[in-house]
């Protein structure tokens, strides 16, 4: 995507959308095959979800401050 000169916000949004689609496809399989195992992990899942929300909010603020050339350099490596 770097070759298409997509703005950094679109780059991150596209990567996030792809990750959500992948998770939406695999989570039903996990629930169907490991329902009882996952029930015991609800605390870890809740903590992970809270971390995702915190990371998204914090990452959005960092992304706003990050200059486009630096973003492209960081993503490239």
What can you tell me about this protein's structure?
This protein has 77 residues and is mostly helical. 84% of the residues lie in helices and 0% in strands. It has three helices and no strands. The chain is elongated, with a radius of gyration of 16 Å. It starts with 7 loop residues before the first helix and ends with a helix.
Précis, in short:
This protein is mainly α. It has helices spanning 8-39, 42-65, 68-76.
Computed structural class = mainly alpha
> How far is the N terminus from the C terminus?
14 Å
Largest sheet: none
Radius of gyration: 16 Å
- Mean pLDDT value: 90
Estimate percent helicity. Answer: over 70%
Poorly predicted residue ranges: none
> How do the SSEs run, as a string of H and E?
HHH
Strand tally is 0
Secondary structure: elements and pairs:
Blueprint: H1 8-39, H2 42-65, H3 68-76
Features:
mainly alpha
């Amino acid at each position: 995507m770097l070759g298409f000169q997509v703005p950094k916000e679109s780059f991150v949004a596209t990567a996030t959308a792809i990750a959500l689609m992948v998770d939406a496809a695999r989570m039903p399989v996990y629930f169907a095959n490991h329902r009882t195992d996952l029930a015991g992990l609800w605390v870890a899942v809740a903590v992970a979800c809270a971390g995702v929300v915190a990371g998204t909010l914090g990452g959005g603020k960092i992304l706003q401050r990050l200059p486009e050339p630096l973003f492209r350099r960081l993503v490239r490596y």
